[in-house]
Amino acid sequence: MSEQLSMERFDSAGMSPATTMALAALAGAAVGYLFFTEHGRQLRDRVEPMVRAWVEEMGQLQRAAEKVRAAYHESRDTLAATSRVTHAPRT
């Protein structure tokens, strides 16, 4: 039964078990290279600052998007309140 479920998962993802194994082997080779060779360490040392900068920029972008979202909601609420005041029946 579990084999059938795992095969269904591969079918829905569009990957065969052989493709999954090949990708896992490739990922394992990349990790081995990066963490167990001198060249891999040098590559990590060069790439790490770029990745940190990219992550920081994505954080800044997320904070900016949150500010825009808050400003949108505040503007929408203000317009809705203004609309209710201007269209209120006169007594």
Descriptive notes:
89% of the residues lie in helices and 0% in strands. It is mainly α and 91 residues long. 0% of the residues are buried. Helix 2 packs across helix 3 (38-86). The chain has 2 domains: 1-36, no CATH class; 38-91. The protein starts with a helix and ends in a 5-residue tail after the last helix.
Summarize this structure briefly:
The protein is an all-alpha fold and 91 residues long. Helix content is 89%, strand content 0%.
Roughly what is the average pLDDT, rounded to an integer?
Answer: 87
The helix/strand order is: HHH
Structural class: mainly alpha
Query: What is Rg?
Result: 27 Å
- Helical fraction equals over 70%
Number of strands: 0
Number of helices, where a helix is a run of at least 4 consecutive DSSP H or I residues: 3
How many structural units, i.e. domains? 2
Ends: how far apart? 73 Å
Q: Categorize the overall geometry.
A: elongated
Unreliable residue stretches = none
> Could you describe the largest sheet, including whether it forms a barrel?
none
Measured by DSSP, the beta-strand proportion falls in: under 5%
